């Protein structure tokens, strides 16, 4: 296997490779760009015009997606997987990955779309570098752009695998992309309805990619991910990479559940209290009238929406950040 296939090993050891560019026997070029960043380019004659960004480890303790990208890279470096797409592999927060922590000082996934400029520290610099790497990668004209930012969740979930689809004024969510996600094993998609500061929102909003955050199960340490079944996603990614994806039928989206954001619950102060059991699962339903949270100056978050469910409840976030998302079921009538 080519040494650059060991991007994860290099990243975990904090090392730069001696050789920055290597070629497989089939002429696939692997190029190390920066810590945790590697570009794969097929020979020109095989290139099918897709630019695919695969990122993981934006949160350092979310190891199943990192292991998945590591397997894909090994297959490419051995010549077992023969790309027809250009690919950028990114391990988002190398220092947090080495320490097995979600982040060190600041959550990198709250520092995109301008946020890193309002703060300082190594994670702000990394978010800036990730934006630059993504922008350079997606700068070639007339190509299809796709970004999957892979995550696992802090808690268990009534729906294990789901995607979050960013929003941009004047742009419609794509039914074709939802069909692709369904084929990749996603059971639900959350359609955003306002701008956001996460990585997938940056590539969707600023770089015109079709972009998604994918949640694949519960976060566990390296080597303990047997409970996270990524086989459908892995198969689909290999097909996307090799240009062998079976045609997608988009009718009915095969039972894919769609949700939209009703409200983001923002923690405003240290007085914030979330009235949920510590072990509550994502997608748990909340009854109308339920007092979900309380904050400074007697402010209360009361459930008003019928069929509301909670995802990513987390009272430990910093003040000013999202402490949960209230979602409601929606239909496919506004898809492009
Ligand atoms: O389990 C949790 O509370 C968080 C899991 C996670 O890291 N999710 C992403 C979602 C990003 C998005 O909103 O698209 C995050 O919170 O950064
Ligand atoms: Zn995450």
UniProtKB/TrEMBL annotation:
Residues 49-238 form the Succinylglutamate desuccinylase/Aspartoacylase catalytic domain. Pathway: Amino-acid degradation; L-arginine degradation via AST pathway; L-glutamate and succinate from L-arginine: step 5/5. Binds 1 zinc ion per subunit. It is an enzyme of class 3 (hydrolase). Its EC number is 3.5.1.96. Residues 256-329 form the AstE/AspA barrel-sandwich hybrid domain. NCBIfam families: arg_catab_astE, PRK05324.1. This is Succinylglutamate desuccinylase.
């Amino acid at each position: 296997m080519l040494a650059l296939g060991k991007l994860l090993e290099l990243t975990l050891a904090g090392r730069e490779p001696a050789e920055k560019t290597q070629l497989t026997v089939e002429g696939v070029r692997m190029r190390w760009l920066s810590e945790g960043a590697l570009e794969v380019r097929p020979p020109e004659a095989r290139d099918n015009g897709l630019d695919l960004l695969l990122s993981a480890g934006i949160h350092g303790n979310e190891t199943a997606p990192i292991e998945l990208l590591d397997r894909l890279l090994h297959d490419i470096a051995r010549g077992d997987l023969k790309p027809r797409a250009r690919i950028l592999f990114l391990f988002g927060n190398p220092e947090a990955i080495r320490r097995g922590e979600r982040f060190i000082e600041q959550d990198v996934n709250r520092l995109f779309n301008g946020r890193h400029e309002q703060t300082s520290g190594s994670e702000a610099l990394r978010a800036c570098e990730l934006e630059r790497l993504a922008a350079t990668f997606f700068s070639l004209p007339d190509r299809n752009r796709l970004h999957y930012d892979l995550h696992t969740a802090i808690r268990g979930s009534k729906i294990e695998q789901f995607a979050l689809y960013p929003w941009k004024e004047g742009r419609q969510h794509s039914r074709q992309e939802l069909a692709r996600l369904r084929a990749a094993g996603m059971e639900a998609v959350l359609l955003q309805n306002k701008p956001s500061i996460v990585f997938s929102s940056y590539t969707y909003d600023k770089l015109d990619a079709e972009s998604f955050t994918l949640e694949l199960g519960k976060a566990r340490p390296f080597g303990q991910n047997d409970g996270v079944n990524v086989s459908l996603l892995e198969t689909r990614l290999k097909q996307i990479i090799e240009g062998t994806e079976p045609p997608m039928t988009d009718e009915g989206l095969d039972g894919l559940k769609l949700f939209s954001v009703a409200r983001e619950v923002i923690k405003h102060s240290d007085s914030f209290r979330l009235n949920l059991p510590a072990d509550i699962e994502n997608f748990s339903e909340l009854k109308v009238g339920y007092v979900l949270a309380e904050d400074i100056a007697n402010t209360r978050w009361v459930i008003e929406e019928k069929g509301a469910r909670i995802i990513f409840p987390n009272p430990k976030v910093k003040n000013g950040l999202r402490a949960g998302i209230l979602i409601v079921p929606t239909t496919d009538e506004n898809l492009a």
